[in-house]
Amino acid sequence: MRIYLSRPDISERDIEAVCEVLRSPDLSLGPKLVEFERAVAEYIGTKHAVAVNSGTSGLFLCMLALGIGPGDEVITTPFTFIATANCIMMVGAKPVFVDIDPVTLNIDPAKIESKITDKTKAIVPVEVFGNPAGFDKICQIAEKHNLTVIEDSCEALGSELNGRKAGTFGKMSTFAFYPNKQITTGEGGMILTDDDDLADMCISLRNQGRGKNAAWLSHERLGYNFRLSDINCALGIAQLSRIDEFKAKRKQVANWYQQMLADDNRLIVPAEADNCDVSWFVFVVRLARSFNRAQRDDVLQKMLADGIQVGNYFSPVHLQPFIADALGCEPADFPVTQAVSERTIALPFYNNLTKDDVAVVCSVLTSALDNL
Ligand SMILES: *Cc1c(COP(=O)(O)O)cnc(C)c1O
Question: What is the pTM of this model?
Answer without folding.
Answer: 0.98
